[in-house]
Automatic annotation (TrEMBL):
Taxonomic lineage from the root: Bacteria, Pseudomonadati, Pseudomonadota, Gammaproteobacteria, Oceanospirillales
Gene3D superfamilies from the UniProt entry: PmbA/TldD superfamily
Superkingdom of source: Bacteria
A cellular component term, taken from the record's GO annotations: cytosol
Homology family: Belongs to the peptidase U62 family.
Official protein name in the record: Metalloprotease PmbA
Length: 446
C-alpha cells in the first residue's frame, strides 16, 4: 500500500473523537447520545487477459452521531472527523431531534446490557502487500485458469486487501473498539462450445491472508466450474427434489434471518410473525450464532449498540427458539435485545452432515442448483421463485448441465422439507453451511 495503516494510532484517534462528540452532545443539551466512528484502508487490483485493468487505493472514514432529547431522536453523520465537523454534526443531530416526534421505543440499549467481556478475537491480520505483489497474485490466478484446456475467454481476476478500525461509544459510559481485516481473491472465466458461451467463477476470502487458498488453485477451480456448464439444456417441467449448493443454501439462511429480524416482525412484514416456539424445520436441525468465535469473519464482543454479544440459538430441534433483536425492535415487541443490532454474527448449523454423493443418491432424480438469478423472494408470505442453473440428476448421478428454468415453492415448505445437509461446508463467509437437499420444488423448464 502507498501509506502504512497504523491501526493502533487510529484506535486512539477515533476514541478521542467519540469522547469529544459525547461530551459536546451533553453540553448542548442531549439527554443521551451514541457515536460510531470508523476508518478503513484498502488495496484492490483487477487484471484481465494478462494485463492490469485497475489499481485502487482507498481510504474511507466516517463518524455517525445519534442524540436523544427525551424520546425524540436525531441522527447525523460526516466523513470528516475534525473537531469543527464533529461540532457541526452534533448540532445538526440535535436540531433534528428537537423536531422529530416522540417514540416510546427510542433510546440507548439498557445500561445493564453493555458489554463487559471484550477479548481480542483475533480478527485483525494486516497484509504487508505491495501493489506489484497484489498484481502478480491476480495475474497468477487468472493465468492458471486460462491455461486450462477449453477456456475461451476471461472476465479477469481481482484481489482485495483491507483493514480498518471501528469505535462505538455511548453516554452510558460504554466504549468499545475493534480492529479488523479482510482479504480476498477471485477469478471469472468463459468457455464456449457449439451451444454457446458459459461463465463461472471461484474465490477465496479470509481475515488472515495466510488462510487464503493458492491463486493457482482458485484459477483452476474457476476453470473447472466454467467448463462443467457447457452443453446446458432446459430441464423438464414438474415437481422434483432440489439440492442447493453451499453458496446458495447460505442464502436460504439469509432469508430465514431476515424473517426473524425484529424490524420485520414489529412491522408485521415477516412470514414468521408470532411463530416463536413453533415448528419450522425437521427436529434434527438447529442454527445458532457464535459471535465470540476467535478469528471468524463476523466476530465481535459487542453489537452496534454496545450490547454484549452471546451465542444465540435461533432454531432448536426444528423450532423457532429466538428472534434476532436490537434494543429498539425488542422494545417494540415487548422483549429484550438479543445483542443483534447490526445482524447475526457467525451462523453455524447444528445438524448431522451427509456426503455430496449420498445427497445425490437420496435425491435420485432432480436438480442440483449451483446458480440463482433474480430477487423473487417475498419476506411477508415466504413465497420463493428464482431463475436457476445447475445440473440434472438421474439415478443419483449427474447427467448434464441445465439452465433457463425457475424453481418455486414457499420458504415454510422448503424449511419443513429439508431432507439433509451436506458435509461440503462453505466457510468463506459468516454463514457456514453445506448443501441443502429440499424434498420437492416446482420446476418450470422445457
Amino acid at each position: 500500500m502507498a501509506q502504512a495503516f497504523d491501526a493502533a494510532a487510529q484506535q486512539v484517534l477515533l476514541t478521542q473523537r467519540a469522547e469529544e462528540a459525547l461530551a459536546l452532545a451533553k453540553k448542548l443539551g442531549a439527554d443521551a447520545a451514541e457515536v460510531g466512528a470508523s476508518v478503513d484502508q484498502g488495496l484492490g487490483v483487477s487484471v484481465r487477459l494478462g494485463e492490469v485493468e485497475t489499481v485502487e487505493l482507498s481510504r474511507d472514514q466516517g463518524i455517525a452521531i445519534t442524540l436523544y432529547v427525551g424520546q425524540r431522536k436525531g441522527s447525523a453523520s460526516s466523513t470528516d472527523a475534525s473537531s469543527a465537523s464533529i461540532k457541526a454534526t452534533v448540532e445538526k443531530a440535535l436540531a433534528i431531534a428537537r423536531y422529530t416526534g416522540e417514540d416510546p421505543a427510542a433510546g440507548l440499549a439498557d445500561a445493564a446490557l453493555m458489554a463487559t467481556d471484550l477479548p481480542d478475537l483475533k480478527v485483525h491480520y494486516p497484509w504487508a502487500l505491495t501493489t506489484d505483489e497484489a498484481i502478480d497474485l491476480a495475474l497468477a490466478c487468472e493465468k492458471a485458469g486460462r491455461d486450462v484446456a477449453g477456456i475461451h475467454q476471461s472476465e479477469g481476476a481481482s484481489l482485495s486487501s483491507g483493514e480498518g478500525v471501528r469505535v462505538y461509544a455511548n453516554s452510558h459510559g460504554f466504549l468499545g473498539t475493534q480492529k479488523g481485516s479482510s482479504h480476498s481473491l477471485s477469478c471469472m472465466l468463459i468457455a464456449q462450445d457449439e451451444k454457446g458461451m458459459q461463465r463461472d467463477y471461484d474465490y477465496t476470502s479470509a481475515r488472515n491472508p495466510a488462510m487464503l487458498r493458492e491463486p493457482e488453485e482458485v484459477g483452476r477451480e474457476a476453470a473447472s466450474r466454467t467448463l462443467r456448464r457447457l452443453g446446458a439444456q432446459r430441464p423438464p417441467t414438474g415437481t422434483f427434489p432440489v439440492l442447493f449448493d453451499p453458496s446458495l443454501s447460505s442464502g436460504l439462511i439469509g432469508h430465514l434471518m431476515g424473517a426473524l429480524a425484529g424490524g420485520a416482525l414489529y412491522r408485521e412484514s415477516s412470514f414468521l410473525c408470532d411463530r416463536l416456539g413453533s415448528s419450522l424445520f425437521p427436529n434434527w436441525f438447529g442454527l445458532e450464532e457464535r459471535p465470540m468465535e476467535v478469528g471468524a469473519s463476523a466476530s465481535s464482543p459487542f453489537d452496534a449498540e454496545g450490547v454484549q454479544t452471546r451465542n444465540n440459538r435461533f432454531i432448536e430441534q426444528g423450532t423457532v427458539a429466538s428472534y434476532m433483536l436490537s434494543a429498539y425492535s425488542a422494545r417494540r415487541l415487548g422483549m429484550q435485545s438479543t445483542g443483534n443490532a447490526g445482524g447475526a454474527r457467525n451462523l453455524r448449523l447444528l445438524a448431522p452432515l451427509t456426503s455430496r454423493d449420498d445427497l445425490l443418491k437420496q435425491m435420485g432424480r432432480g436438480i442440483w442448483v449451483t446458480e440463482l438469478m433474480g430477487q423473487g423472494v417475498n419476506g411477508v408470505t415466504g413465497d420463493y421463485s428464482r431463475g436457476a442453473a445447475g445440473f440434472w440428476i438421474e439415478n443419483g448421478e449427474v447427467q448434464h448441465p441445465v439452465e433457463e428454468f425457475t424453481i418455486a415453492s414457499n420458504l415454510n415448505s422448503m424449511f419443513a422439507g429439508l431432507v439433509a445437509v451436506g458435509d461440503d461446508t462453505d466457510t468463506r463467509g459468516s454463514i457456514h453451511t453445506g448443501s441443502w437437499l429440499i424434498d420437492a420444488m416446482t420446476i418450470a423448464g422445457s
